[in-house]
Amino acid sequence: MDMLVDWPLERLRDYLPDRDEPADFDEFWADTVQQAREVGTPALFEPYDARLSTMEVYDVTFSGFAGQPVRGWFLIPAHLDGRLPCVVTYIGYGGGRGLPHEWLTWGAAGYAHLVMDTRGQGSNGYFVGDTPDPDPVGLPHTPGFMTRGLTDPQSYYYRRVFTDAVRAVDAAREHPRVDPDRVVVTGASQGGGITLAVAGLVDGLAAVLPDVPFLCHYRRATEITDAMPYQELVTYLKTHRGDVDAAFRTLGYFDGVNFATRATAPTLFSVALMDAVCPPSTVFAAYNHYAATDKDITVWPYNGHEGGAGWQFPRQVELLRRVLG
After folding, report:
1. Does this model's pTM top 0.85?
2. Domain limits of the chain?
3. What Pfam families does UniProt report for this protein, alphabetically (predicted)?
4. Stretch (H or E) spanning 285
């Protein structure tokens, strides 16, 4: 049964928890991103016949973490000329890049659009994926992605994913039809968490649009929801009782709350008050710590993890029209 799953909205708006941030957070990420850029090669944009007469479509391969190939789609409105603003999209948990015709909305609104595949994902029954994760960790983990390499930040799964996401912005900025000063990042759920990571790691973004973001305020999430995927962490720690401190130390490097404090681009979040997957307090923790003064959050009081769904898009376009011109 749907119900409010967290605190009243008035308390959520004021929720500014202490952050659990490793002392070498910035050094860790600067080194990780620099290493990826040093071994990277130029992105490949290969024309792809998607049977779409109003959209130019390209099959993209770019260098992600450790130079490893990551797939994507690049779509651009066929009727527009010159350099365009570009929206980079990150995908929800378990999903892959899918098929080009599943990503027409941003192009229809007049933007170039790069969709990043998520390594190792894309087999959950909806969007198909095409990017392997060649760095599997042989340590025990709960089925899923949340606990792969959990006890060491160097080997944690989301180190690779977040680095891929930074490099996706680099790839978009390389394309001659993209205005590199007008790049926007967005995504829902896991995609929203990835969006926040990129917002804290990449300079000069034009806007940041995280919807019902996952991967935020991990400890509280494990304490107040029994929904997946956060339950993967609970299951792992229930079993590996001695790994609790090491696990949360690792998660400190990947917490959207910590990335939010470094994010300065204009932003529009969304949150749903009946969302048990990404509880509202975890979303507000990131939003309230988000460093930009130009920020807003859309509250969907009677929705679950679907959030605003299609209702959020017009609000996002309104923000982009204002900040991009």
Report:
1. yes
2. 9-320
3. AXE1
4. helix 280-289
